Amino acid sequence: MVTKTPLLLRALKKSPWVFHVGTSGCNNCDIEIADCLTPRFDVERFGIKLVGSPRHADVMLITGPVSRACKEPLQQAWLEMPQPRAAVMVGSCACSMGAYKDAYSVAGPPDKVLLEIDPDAKFIYVPGCPPKPETIVMGVVKLLGAL
Amino acid sequence: MSSPTSKRVVQIGPFHPLLEEPVGFSLGVEGETVVDVDARMDYIHKGIEILAQQRTYDMLPILLERICGICSVTHSVCFCNAAEDLLGVEIPPRAKYIRTIIAELERVHSHLLWVGLAGHFIGYNTVFMWAWKYREPVCDVFEMLTGHRQNSALPMVGGVRRDIPVKYFDEARKTLDMVEGKTQMLTDAVLDDPVLAARLKGVGVLTPEEVMEWGVVGPTARASGVDTDVRRDEPYAAYDELDWEVCLTQNGDVFDKAVVRLLELKESIKILRQCFDRFPEGPLNLGTLHIPRGEGVGRYEAPRGEDIHYLRSNGTNMPERLKVRAPSYTNIASFKASCIGEKISDVTITLAACDPCYSCTERTAVVRAGADQPERTFGDLVRLSQAETRRIAAEMGRAPDLQLT
Asked: How many C-beta neighbours within 10 Å does residue A30 have?
């Protein structure tokens, strides 16, 4: 259940802290996320900060399809995030499984895996293989506008 | 002195801020000293080798680019090398030069990425920001020449798919001059910095004997003075026509692994300049090729070391088997040699020093039989498969044509 307290939401939009989960992607989207932090894009200007624990985060950036081995750790990390929480699906694989649609070792796209345990989860999708850093920043900004 | 009670296990991962990819490390520690290291590596296994058996040869380079985000040129060109080895053909000169250009651009941005991450791992974020700042222009050049920041989709069996625009070579040269100057600055800063020397010298040492024993490849081996480079030993693309050197350092510690990568970066820029100067005219590929029955092996010097693709074809338009052995596969095993005996705070940088890439490496997943999943022997699986065949045949309304025993 997402609790929409006005104060919480205002604070969230001022400075969303993001936690990055690579659920068996090919590494490329993960690098573009790290690229967002470095001088050319520098998302810390907007208060967006990459943090080391899901307990500190407001937004989860998910890359890649969810492999069978990653399914439980991802669900656990999602439940550890405080509410209100949301996720950005970065890249084609996270949006729609991309090239790995027919792979045997993949449990499903991350949105379905998260909806299994949290039917109210909020997502935004950033397609691309990989999306350019400016697209990822745009995705986070759009998500905050939609909350 | 190691009694069972004195050993503790520290678990790192699978989602850890220092790891871009999910991977689990278990460090056995006694006090501050690491006495054992183990890795659980099936979080990223997706089964791309099976997918590769369901794709045609034209689609494969594009799928194989997605094995790893940083080594995208590596895996597609390595597969093409394997297919061309099977066919016994030589690709046109222009295709060779285009492959060399995209391969070396990839090496430049991959090494800059590693230098930045290494700085990040030891808490030296200035290096991280610098290196990644100068990586961006390299990605821009890649985008200018191929249309994408990392995944070029250029290689195909028998050459390359598209041309690269020669009109942007001047712009690319200017960018590379700038990047070379900045790399020199970064190299000087790394070599002269007393803090970095104190932090990294003598940490995570791999001796040449250990390198040979564990089969370590690439810059990790060259940092220990082991002279190995596929580009020189078994030239593919245009490397045998160009003037360049294999960079070696002697100590095998993390500091030397950084230095050897920074030196290699400059060699790569040298190779790129020569490619721009000598860029030949001519056809781009050999057209559509029929891949006959047979097997081929492709070797390729990836930014992380030697990549091997084994291809077996049965004469159809899809491979019968494609085996990928990425360089990190052997390099990760050497953690047993480099991490044990180190302090726990030095282990992160030692783990990172071979530039491990887990999505390249993870070709298998271990499935444990649980309560809902009974353990099955090979015979059980054969019986199940035969029962399923019978069921499908009955559904289709015909008797099974294979003799079941």
From this structure: 25
| pLDDT value for B400 | 55
Per-residue model confidence as pLDDT tens digits over A77-124? 999 998 888 899 999 999 988 888 888 888 889 999 999 999 988 889
Q: B154 with A132: CB under 8 angstroms?
A: no
Say whether residue A22 is in contact with chain B using an 8 A CB cutoff: yes
β-bridge mates for residue A60, sequence order: A19, A87
Cβ–Cβ contact A51 with B under 8 A:
yes
What pLDDT, in 10s, does the model give residues B364-380?
Answer: 666 665 656 667 788 88
Q: Which CATH class is domain A6-141?
A: alpha beta
Alpha-carbon dihedral of residues B84, B90, B92, B98, nearest 10 degrees? Answer: 50
Closest CA in chain B for residue A78: B15
Mean of the per-residue pLDDT values of chain B: 87
**Which ipTM value was assigned to this complex?**
0.88
> Residue B393 contacts by C-beta under 8 Å, 6 or more apart in sequence?
B399, B400
**CATH code of the domain occupying B48-330:** 1.10.645.10
Which of A83, A71, A60 minimizes the C-alpha distance to A5?
A: A83
